[in-house]
Amino acid sequence: QVHLVESGGGLVQAGGSLRLACAASGRTFSSYTLGWFRQAPGKEREFVAFIRWSGGSTSYADYVKGRFTISRDNAKNTMYLQMNSPKPEDTAVYYCAALGGIYWGNYARSAGSYEYWGQGTQVTVSS
Fold first, then answer.
1. For residue 9, what are the CA distances in angstroms to 60, 74, 75, 78?
2. Which of 7, 46, 70, 110 lies most in the core, judged by the most C-beta atoms within 10 Å?
3. ∠ Cα 11 12 15 (to 5°)
4. Residues 6+ positions from 88 with CB-CB distance below 8 Å
5. Are 92 and 40 in contact (CB under 8 A)?
6. Which tens digit of pLDDT belongs to each residue from 94-108?
7. What percent of the chain lies above the pLDDT cut of 70?
8. Which residues are registered as beta bridge partners of 70?
């Protein structure tokens, strides 16, 4: 059973920086795709970024591209989301998720494709 635990959320000023972490356990993740999603109040869960654990290929939503960076540490079985220059509209609960298999494109950008989810961590960006 895959277990995902997010950490690092909190209050940050617009233009600052914040790093989220997702500790993963229960599997060898070399054949997994891991992603970050977010959900603001009253809105649907939306894609932020994903990474192929093996090889480290990444993809980003346009609204975070150039500001956020997804990465992983194989030795620690941990995925990260470095949030630089966050904006108030980035305020949301951020979730990490895991999908068994190596995927790309719209399938890997869809929350419904992911099998395992963390509990989420709140990020609030003040103006």
1. 19, 22, 22, 15
2. 70
3. 165
4. 14, 125, 126, 127
5. yes
6. 999 999 988 889 999
7. 100
8. 81
